[in-house]
């Protein structure tokens, strides 16, 4: 039996925020399709580099959202506040990346990559949670996460 802390609600809300992120990026791609005249089912434009960057940013987010949600959910069991903070940082980096992909400045475009640090932090939180569940270490915050057999 697993008892979750009240703070796990932050993790749930962060997961909901990731849904809003995906919808926002999808809207940006639809808007760019009209602006740069890229009809379905084409995924890329031969004429517009900006459209291709917008599409690529959306695709990268879609490719990483499943591991993100897994790591957020599992890491949040043991570290709900930290996982939620890292998750919001990752979401924020995807928004920065979405805005930066429309700018020609390469330095601005690199700022969105800082979210990979947050994703790695979520990986470490999940790793720690796995160790606690297996009994390899004691929970850092026993009042937040209890495994009862």
TrEMBL record:
Q: Which Pfam families match?
A: MAPEG
Q: How does it sit in the membrane?
A: Multi-pass membrane protein
Give the pathway. Lipid metabolism; leukotriene C4 biosynthesis; Lipid metabolism; arachidonate metabolism
Intracellular or extracellular location(s): Mitochondrion outer membrane
Q: List membrane-spanning regions.
A: 7-25
The EC number on file is 4.4.1.20
- Report the domain of life of the source organism: Eukaryota
* Primary localization: mitochondrion
Q: Which terms does the UniProt entry file under GO BP?
A: leukotriene metabolic process; lipid metabolic process
What Gene Ontology cellular component terms go with this record?
Answer: endoplasmic reticulum; mitochondrial outer membrane; nuclear envelope
* InterPro entries assigned: MAPEG (IPR050997), MAPEG-like_dom_sf (IPR023352), Membr-assoc_MAPEG (IPR001129)
Q: Which reaction does it catalyse?
A: (5S)-hydroperoxy-(6E,8Z,11Z,14Z)-eicosatetraenoate + 2 glutathione = (5S)-hydroxy-(6E,8Z,11Z,14Z)-eicosatetraenoate + glutathione disulfide + H2O; leukotriene C4 = leukotriene A4 + glutathione; 15-deoxy-Delta(12,14)-prostaglandin J2 + glutathione = 15-deoxy-Delta(12,14)-prostaglandin J2-S-(R)-glutathione
Q: Print the keywords alphabetically.
A: Lipid metabolism, Lipoprotein, Lyase, Membrane, Mitochondrion, Mitochondrion outer membrane, Oxidoreductase, Palmitate, Transferase, Transmembrane, Transmembrane helix
Q: Name one GO molecular function term.
A: leukotriene-C4 synthase activity
The UniProt family comment states: Belongs to the MAPEG family.
* Protein's UniProt name: Glutathione S-transferase 3, mitochondrial
What's the source species for this entry?
A: Alosa alosa (allis shad)
């Amino acid at each position: 039996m697993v008892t979750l802390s009240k703070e796990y609600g932050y993790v749930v809300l962060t997961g909901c925020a990731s849904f809003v992120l995906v919808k926002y990026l999808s809207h940006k791609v639809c808007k760019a399709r009209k602006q740069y005249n890229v009809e379905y089912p084409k995924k890329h434009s031969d004429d517009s580099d900006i459209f291709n960057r917008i599409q690529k940013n959306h695709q990268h987010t879609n490719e990483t959202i499943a591991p993100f949600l897994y790591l957020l959910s599992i890491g949040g069991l043991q570290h709900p506040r930290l996982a939620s903070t890292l998750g919001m940082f990752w979401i924020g980096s995807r928004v920065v990346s979405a805005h930066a992909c429309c700018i020609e400045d390469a330095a601005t475009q690199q700022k969105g990559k800082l979210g990979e640090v947050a994703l790695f932090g979520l990986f470490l939180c999940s790793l720690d949670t796995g160790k606690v569940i297996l009994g390899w270490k004691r929970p850092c915050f026993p009042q937040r996460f209890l495994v009862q057999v």
